[in-house]
Amino acid sequence: MLTGKHAAFTRDWTWRQWSVPVGARSFFPYVRQLRAMTVPEDLEVKFSISVSLERFDPRSDMRRVAAQALELVQIAEQGGFEIAWTPEHHTIEFTIAPNPFTILTHWAAHTRTIRLGTAVVVAPYWHPIRVAGEAALCDVLSNGRLEFGIGRGAYQFEFDRMAGGIPQTEGGAFMREMLPVLKSLWEGDHEHRGRYWSFPLATAVPKPVQKPHPPIWVAARDAATFDWAIKQGANIQATPLSRPNSEVTVLGKRFGEALAANPGQARPHFLMLRRTCVYEDPDEWVTPVRTSKGYCDSFAAKTGATVIQDGPVDYAKLRTMIQNGSPTWDVVDVTIDFLYNAAKDGLFEKIDASIVDTNLLPPKYVHEYGIANIVWSYNIAFNTQTFTDGKHPKTWSEFLDVEKFPGRRALRDRVNPMLEIALLADGVPFEKLYPLDVDRALKRLEPMKKNAVWWTTNSQSQQLMIDGECSLGILNNGRIYDAVQKGAKIGIEWAQNLQSVDYLVVPKGSKVKDAAMGLIAEMMLPNNQATVSNIMPLAPTNPEAFKLIKKEIAPWLSTEPANIAQGFPINEEYWRDNYKALAERWVAWKLA
User: Fold this and answer.
1) DSSP H or E segment with residue 563
2) Is 485 inside a domain boundary?
3) Which of 118, 271, 350, 500 is most buried, with most CB under 10 Å away?
4) Domain of 415: which CATH number?
5) In terms of domains, do 32 and 45 share one?
6) If residue 578 lies in a helix (H) or strand (E), which one and from where to where?
7) Which run of H or of E encompasses 478?
8) How far, in Å, CA of 351 to CA of 349, rounded?
9) Is residue 12 part of a domain?
10) Comparing 214 with 305, which gets the higher pLDDT?
11) Where does 129-224 show beta strands of DSSP type E?
C-alpha cells in the first residue's frame, strides 16, 4: 500500500494550531456540551487528551516546547477533559519523555482537577520496584490523580538502546510479568522470582494515595492483549495509529470479543486514541483536504494505487522508521535543510529519472535524492493603513530604519533568516552574502532590539500584524496572503525576498519504491501544481503551472517571474554546517 504524505499543507496548517493553541481554546469548551448529549444509558463517554513534548525541529527551544504542552493541558482542564496523558520515549524528538512521571508531576503542580496518565510506561525499560515507587510518588504529589498506563513499547530503535537489543515483540512478555508484581508492591511486601526480574522481599515506598493502587490501563491492539488486560481487571487503551476509521471498528470488535470471553470480569473503560487537528477557522480544514485530493485522487485514478495520507511531518519519527528498516511512509514532503542532512546520512532513495521526468523542472529544483515541489519566501509585510500610497519600506535597509519608518517590528526569532536580512540591510549584495559576516549582522540588528516583537510560529507573526501590534513584519508570503483574504489591511513587498524550498523524497527501504516515484511524478505535472497553488499560496516549481494558475493568485507566489527575479534562495548547505553554533550565538546575543 502506498502511503502518500504531503506535509506542505499539514505541517503548516495543522502544526500551527498546536504550537499556539488558540484553536484549542475555542474547541475544548465544546467537550462539556458533547458530554451532556443524550447517549445510551449503559454508555458513559468521557474525553481525554494525549500531549507529547514534540519538536518538529531539534533546534527548537525545549523550554518553549514544555511550556506549550503545559498550556494545552491547562486548556484541556478548563474545557472539561478527564485525563491528560503523556508517553515514554527515548532519544527521539517527536515524543520527548524519558520519564513520564516527571512530566506528570510538573503538570500536577500547575493544574487542580484533571487526572494525569502515563500512555504508557514501557515495561522492558524499567525495574518493577522503581516503577512502583515512581508511580506512587507521582500519585502522592498529584494528590491522587495518577492513571497508570503500561505497555510493551513501540520502536525497535529504542529497544536497541534501552533494552539490550531484544526484539520489540518480546516487550509484551515483560509487561505481563511486571503488572502483577506492581500490584503486590503497591499493596504490601512482595518477593519475586521471575523470568526477567528477581528480588528479595520488598515493597513500594511511598505507597500511592489511591487504594489499593491507581487505575491501571493496558495498551492493546492484538486480541491476546485485550483478553489478558480484561483478566487483569485493567482498563484498555487502543489506537488505530494513522489507519482509516475502519481500524477503530476492528479494535472495538476485539474489545467486544474479549468481554464476551470473560463474562465474570467487570467491564473496564475502553479508550480510543486518535490524532485530532484543531482549526481556528471552521472552514480552514477544507484547504489541506482539497489540496491533497488534487494530487492523490488523480494518481489513484490513473494507477489504481491506494494512497493513505498522514501528517504532520515528524523528522525524528521518520529517521527512526528508516533506521529500523521499516518506513510506513513512502513519499514525504521535507524542508530543504532536512533534505541535505538526511541525504548525507543515506536516508532516502535516489530519484528514479526513468519514472520522474526531471526535465519538467529547472535544474535548481532537482536533487539526487529529492524533487522540489513548492517554494515559499520571507517578505516585508506592512500595514496598509499606516503606510499608504506605496510609502512603505521597499528594502531591508528601509525596513530596519526606525527613524524613517517608526513602529514596532514583528521579527523572526531565529538566526536565519535574520542574519541574511541584517547583512542585506547593511548593503551586502545577494551574491556575496555567504559565508555570513556574523559580527556585522548582529551589530546591524542591535538597534532593533527595543522595537522588536519576536515571533516563533507563523500564526504568531500573522496575528501581530492583524492585531496592529506591529506595523511592519517579516512574514512568509502565505501568511500575508491568508491574512489579506480574511480582510486584514496588510500589504506585501517582494523586493529582496528570501526563498526556501520543500522537496518530495522516498524513504530508504520503501517497499513500493516505484509507486512512490510515480506519485512524485504526478505531483510534478503542471495541472496538479496549479491545483495546489490555486487553493494555497504555495508556489509551483514547474513553470508551466502558471498557465493554469488564476491571475489573482499568481502575484502572491514566490516563483512568479517578477517575484523570483527579486528574490534570493537561502543557502541551506551553509546552514547545515553552521546552524548549531550560530543558533547558540543568537540566543546569547538576544540575552545580552
Assistant:
1) helix 561-565
2) yes
3) 118
4) 3.40.190.10
5) yes
6) helix 572-591
7) helix 477-485
8) 6
9) no
10) 214
11) 146-151, 190-193, 198-202, 216-219
Q: Which residue has the cell 531591508?
A: 396
Q: Are 563 and 476 in contact (CB under 8 A)?
A: no
Could you tell me if residue 317 is inside a domain?
yes
**Cell matching residue 290:** 482539497
Q: Which amino acid would we find at residue 419?
A: L
For the segment 330-379, what is each residue's pLDDT rounded down to a tens digit? 999 888 878 888 888 899 999 999 999 999 999 999 999 999 999 999 99
Are 46 and 174 part of one and the same domain? yes
Q: Are residues 367 and 327 in the same domain?
A: yes
pTM, two decimals, is 0.62
Mark whether 516 and 528 lie in a shared domain. Answer: yes
Give yes or no: residues 173 and 310 share one domain. Answer: no
**Residue 235 placed within a domain:** no
Domain with 441, as residue range(s), is: 376-500+578-591
- Per DSSP, the residues of 490-502 read EEEEEEEEEEEEE
Q: How far apart are CA 255 and CA 250, in angstroms?
A: 9
Using CA atoms in the order 325, 330, 335, 339, what is the torsion angle rounded to 10 degrees? 50
| Cβ(7)–Cβ(332) below 8 Å | yes
Give dist(CA 463, CA 410) in Å, integer: 10
pLDDT in tens, 298-320: 777 777 777 777 766 667 778 88
- 297 exposure class (CB count in 10 Å sphere: 0-12, 13-18, 19+): exposed
Query: What's the full length of the chain, in residues?
Result: 592
Q: What is the DSSP letter of 281?
A: S
DSSP-derived letter for residue 543 is G
Cβ-based neighbour number of residue 359 at 10 Å = 10
Question: Domain tally for the chain?
Answer: 3
Residue 5, pLDDT > 60, answer no
Using H for helix, E for strand and C for coil, what is the string for 389-405? Answer: CCCCCCCHHHHCCCCCC
